[in-house]
Automatic annotation (TrEMBL):
Gene3D superfamilies: lambda repressor-like DNA-binding domains
Organism: Thiomonas arsenitoxydans (strain DSM 22701 / CIP 110005 / 3As)
CDD domains: HTH_XRE
Entry-linked SUPFAM superfamilies: lambda repressor-like DNA-binding domains
Gene Ontology molecular function, alphabetical: DNA binding
Domain HTH cro/C1-type: 6-61
The protein, known as: Lambda repressor-like
PROSITE patterns according to UniProt: HTH_CROC1
Length: 71
């Protein structure tokens, strides 16, 4: 299962979804779905903007966790 760590990154930096939306131009709804891990897909440009914004790599934002996989 793929887990998004956006909520952790925001918490570590004491940021809000609105801050990231304003600073990156990423739709707030997209960020909210990533934050709550309800997103079913993510555009590569969104990943790129988030990695650039947080100064991180994709593996810092998304993690693969072994276990149950939705099929």
């Amino acid at each position: 299962m793929i887990k998004c760590r956006l909520s952790s990154l925001l918490g570590d930096r004491k940021l809000k979804i609105a801050d990231v939306a304003r600073d990156t131009g990423i739709n707030r709804g997209t960020l909210t779905r990533l934050y709550h891990e309800t997103a079913e897909r993510i555009e590569l440009d969104v990943l790129d903007k988030l990695c650039e914004y947080f100064g991180c790599e994709v593996q810092d934002l998304l993690r693969h966790e072994a276990g149950t996989s939705a099929r």
